[in-house]
Sequence to fold (640 residues):
Amino acid sequence: MQSQDVAPRPAASSSDPAVDVERAEAALVEHYPRLVRLAYLVLPPSLGRNRRVVTAHALTQRALPKGRAQTAVVPAQSTGRDGDPGYAVVRLQVLRNALEAGRPLRFTALPRRSQLPPLLPQVWGLRLFPRSGGADELALDQRLSTLSGPARAAYVLRGLEKLPDADVREILTAAGCDDAKRTLREADEVPAAHHPLLESPEFDPCSLQARPTDLMRRRQHTKAALVAAAALAVTGALLGMPGDGWGPDGAAAPAYAQNPAAEAALNPGRLTKVAPTAWESSARTDFSVWPARGELTGDSALLRRALAVWARPGERVRVSATPGTPSGGPSGPPQLLYAGKVDSARVVILYDGLRIVRYAEPADGTQGAALDFARVDGADRAGASAVVLGRADGNVRYLTAPWVTKAAERDLLKPDAGATDLGLAKGITSPLAGPAEQTGACASWNVLELTDGTSTWLLTDLGELVPARLTTGRPGSSGQASAARTLRAWAPYGCSLAAVRSAGVRAVNAWAYAAQPLPDGSGSADWVCTRAETWRGGGTRVLAQFRTPGGRYGAVAAKAENAAACGPKDPHVLAGVLWKSETKGWYLLAAGGPGTASVTATGGIEASARGNELAVPAKQGGQAELKGTLDDGRVIGGLR
Fold:
């Protein structure tokens, strides 16, 4: 969103509404989660996630007007959220507090209350932080960290509050911003396409995860408090922190248990390393037969850090996990799949039979690390064919299975274009442009094409450690289609894959279940059902898409989550759409899959038809409830 020059609003007058403290308190309580999210996003990320969470709650709780006198409202806020001027007053104070908290302390002036660590709220013995999001949320958080505090506030007011630039400018000025126009221009550096991500759990300080603080230090401090002056020296020693650079355990939190089994799991000398040719004679073709690769497989210090961080991620570790994937430590010595340098990081990839775990630390030795988890139990030959090694500048580099003989890049939206050979150097591909980093209009969708000598698979990056396989055909037989057929089937629907990013998706199938003649004689429309299956089993997502003759892309007509429709257990599906003919006006079109004996519409549109298709005149905006009767007499409902 670009800032625009808009004529300034008139100054506040005596007719502007005023808000007393009771009304402001009611607005704060009603919209508390929204206000805390606003404060969390405006606060500088350098505070750390735990400090940002606590500070955001403290600043929001201190946003009530002082005393019981009424507070005037600037015109840009006079309607507030949902017509509530009380919300506008509290929101303005939250912004002021958050902007003050982000300003550096100066020796020439006393610090403001918001610049100091909050006294309340406090949670003793726990570190709190929001749930980890996907690659898009991480990229947005990094982009916002490069902006100034007022520019972050401008971006959040645009994206979260949906305010026009004129209102944002007035609110920033009221909050103490000296140059609101320049601030809006700075906020333009972050694309407006990321606005929907501001609503994600990554930035929700009211939905939190908890981990213990340093348990050993807490015990030692408790004992030291019962001892007199001599214990103060011991406490000081316990509070001493190591200097810069990697310690023995890297970014891991201090150890809090002495357990023989846990120690064995964290011993780099006990890691399982499979022989390079084990997969050739094994009855299994999954991650358990991958050999250990990479130039750092003998670096015991690196492997020790990776295992220690896995068991005890410290405050400087960014942890992410696909939905339904536990993020606890290993129960026994895991298997080493890779250890080496990838771009500007040292990367270790481990496997424990249930999860793939990727540990990455900066190669320059600075503090901090990343720890990613992905569930992969039950992986087959295709599902265990590749793992993400690293992402840099929108590109993805993969580590492939030992049975993969060739890797290539294809554009899913251009099935007739040739493949670009990625090459394989010790199982590692050249960088591939990842669709998970695309913003704006969807003009291409790059996928990974892997060959093992007899079979070819298409895989797509959905922002997770393991790419999802793309298939086509009737559910239950979809894995048998050739790569060329899969490309042609997916070409009009590839952009819809963005709807299943960061959802722990294992495979996505596209099935053309009906071709419906249009009532104006202009050709036949295609009905395609796409179903995303997850590694955890639940959370499946189904889209029914409709494409008219000559249309480049399909349009989503209906969707469902955790539904059996269009799946191996119940391949039947029914969906409808309002379609406008250029010559005959509006129609309700509906289609079911093979085996549908009749289709009925009730509600705003009453109609029925024998067979699996229904076409009936309708009015713009009309609504109907769809039901289908199968050949065996069973009744199914339409996707919504």
